[in-house]
């Protein structure tokens, strides 16, 4: 058996401690599977005094992540600090320069600086692995870069923020408005310190940008993701969608088109009986489509100590086994700078309109949709909502986002709406 | 870039031709992802004259798989002949001895001779990869051996024979009896030449035995799988199960218990709204549970040219990338000979009984179940079925297979049954 693989771990939050626990609990199993012992040498975190759920006494404590990253007796630097800049980035760069391989769960950093880090690592002959950065315990990075290596990937999509899915699911099951469930989630500790990372769709978009890169061989481009969070999803829309056989999910979709790479993160309707529609609570799901494999669906816990630590460990074992791969599955220099494209792939859309209850209102709406070139698949008019308004739901046939934008801009001019129209894309899954 | 990886492909059926097509169509992409060119040097199949859906003119044709396996100009022997013995086995052994790595889709061979082949390969420093052997395009071998390397796997289960799932799904949707749908499937070409491989559960059990080995670090032991096919699943049971909120699936389950390794393949009830319950048609699903990762669900096409060739290609790219791993994820010498255990893990059971329509019949049944220590969760008595019989469904609380066996043996002695009792396990998913 080879010499031990020596880990230096920076960041001892939930995931870091989860990794420590696995290394301690499964030492013999890891050695058998890796072909060598996996040992922790040094650790660091902001607060040494904090009470942690693991015995760290046999590891050297460093007050500085930098010291862990560059320590003589560290082979793999495990970065679990987080953040798209600062010490996380600096320490990873230092580790690479000091000849260490890197394992990280840092989606924000990779989404923003992934290309530069890949160039640096590959120039130095080091690897960076990041299975835990996307969808927690679900092995989606490996699936796309390795299992689908023989495929031209045509589309990647997923529900990749458990907190948002929890909120949307709970709104539906409890019949509660967004604000109430948001507050519940906050009290349950489900939200990031900056909740916009979750409900604003940013965290999920970091993950989507990374997935796009490995799926399409493009330079990771987080800024090109069209992002919309779940804040404007109303309980009304959740109920109406459900009536029509749909569920609303914060869905990330990336697909390569003739016009460029579309990357969007937005609340979408998906069929209630589809795998994505069935996904409740904090679970994540990623769907990958390739020209040979067809559609692959991967489902599991997207966060939490065990699942995320499991993903980090899988990367560590790969390094221990001697697996060497370019960071994004092909040499960084060969990743293309994809032209970002605004969403143009046609889809059906859901429209909710609150109309004045007077003759001719519906005709005016229908005229605008017709002028926009939008044809109607289904329409439902409900009983009067309040003194003066009537809710009308429209499910369109497939149409372009441009046509929908035109309709949404034009509809208020009819003078028959009592509030702004709501539109949601119905993603084909 | 390194020298090309040269493939020799034996067996040019659907999968073999699928591999050829990918190599031809995606040459540049494969080179980028692999770090080297992937080239086909030699091919062989039974019938050179057969019209095939690919241009093979630039490859050397060998009349004998042996010649491909041992050719000087072959680095990887791709065995797609099939069969648990004969030329498939001989040629793989010859290839290993000639210093070739091996990629195969041959589940039968690995299920029966996997341990010996692993010992041989590892002794010679060669790798054997077999992603395509289990669940077609679903990357389950990689998920278990690599992504879950930090987990103590607690259970693996799956629907891994698309033909059986097609038959069961079609019986339900069309309301047709088994025999009629079996005949349909035969005419559609869905069945193996020996249909027992499919409907008898043997093919799926080959896959389960392989999964067990990599999940639990045990020597593959196909003979220890308790196998029951789908032949005795009646349209009556499918309907009744559906009434109760379940679907019937041919489900393989492997779990390590204190008594030994349980491996069973049998028609089971699963909740209709679970991922496994939702699976229709020829799609496959594998569920893996680990102590850290929790539950991972993988879904995709389990057969067919594209998906299976995709899996073969992923193995080829891994070899091209220089990935070297023990055949079953840890050295063959360290795989333990697991004690096979008959199913003892408790479960709820579904019982269908046809009773004589006379006073006291139900009491006699209830007495037998009580004597067996079985308590009843739900019971439904239906209207009279024919002149003399009344169908009664029982869903038990969790009980042991032994208790169920006792009840099934004892129930006929009550003299109130008009036909043999039917029992099906309700697997917790």
Automatic annotation (TrEMBL), chains A, B:
UniProt keyword terms in alphabetical order: Amino-acid biosynthesis, Methionine biosynthesis, Oxidoreductase, Threonine biosynthesis
Top-level taxonomic group: Bacteria
Protein's UniProt name: Homoserine dehydrogenase
Family classification: Belongs to the homoserine dehydrogenase family.
SUPFAM superfamilies, per database record: ACT-like, Glyceraldehyde-3-phosphate dehydrogenase-like, C-terminal domain, NAD(P)-binding Rossmann-fold domains
Family annotation (InterPro entries): ACT-like_dom_sf (IPR045865), ACT_dom (IPR002912), Asp/hSer_DH_NAD-bd (IPR005106), HDH (IPR016204), HDH_cat (IPR001342), NAD(P)-bd_dom_sf (IPR036291)
Record carries keyword Amino-acid biosynthesis: yes
Pathway the protein acts in: Amino-acid biosynthesis; L-methionine biosynthesis via de novo pathway; L-homoserine from L-aspartate: step 3/3; Amino-acid biosynthesis; L-threonine biosynthesis; L-threonine from L-aspartate: step 3/5
Keyword Oxidoreductase (UniProt): yes
